[in-house]
Amino acid sequence: MAEKFRIHGGETLRGEVSVGGAKNSVLKLLAASILVKGCTKIYNVPELTDVRIMLQVLADLGAKTDYNREEKSVTVDASDISSITAKYELVSKMRASFTILGALISRCKEAVVALPGGCAIGERRVDFHIKGLESLGAKIKIENGYVHAKAPKLTGTDLYLDIPSVGATENLMLAAVTANGSTRIQNAAQEPEIVDLANFLNAIGADITGAGTSEIVINGVKLENLHSAEYTTIPDRIEAGTFMAAVVATKGKAVIRNVYPAHLTFFNDKLIQMGANIKLAEPTAIEVSARNRLTSINFVTQPYPGFPTDLQAIAMTLLTTANGVGIITESLYENRFMQVPDLRRMGADIHQDRNHAIIKGVKNLEGANVAASDLRAGAALVVAGLMANGDTLVEKLHHIDRGYECFEKKLSALGAKIERVDDDNVSIVPGGNNIGGLL
Question: Which fold has domain 4-20+235-438?
Answer without folding.
Answer: UDP-n-acetylglucosamine1-carboxyvinyl-transferase; Chain (3.65.10)
